[in-house]
Design goal:
4-stranded parallel β-sheet; single chain; 4 strands; alpha/beta
Length: about 80
């Protein structure tokens, strides 16, 4: 069962994506991890596409359904909302 970490805040510009991307790098060194970018700006997704070591997907609906699928494949799931 994966550990799921969601970085969320109602206010913009508080460092959610910065925290999520840094956690993605750190946790990727500990085990198989994936970063989910659920933010409309897709900043984390754009950042991850410049790297070879971070898996990242975007999701804008059916997040719970996707989490159930990913839970079987990954040790860590990070969500940038």
């Amino acid at each position: 069962m994966a550990k799921i970490i969601c970085v969320a805040n109602r206010k913009g510009g508080v460092g959610k994506t910065t925290l999520a991307t840094n956690l993605a790098v750190a946790l990727n060194n500990k085990g198989k991890s994936i970063l989910i970018d659920a933010d409309e700006q897709q900043s984390a997704f754009k950042w991850a596409n410049q790297r070879d070591d971070i898996e990242c997907i975007t999701i804008h609906s059916d997040l719970l359904e996707k989490l159930e699928q990913l839970d079987k494949e990954y040790e860590y799931i990070l969500i940038d909302v």
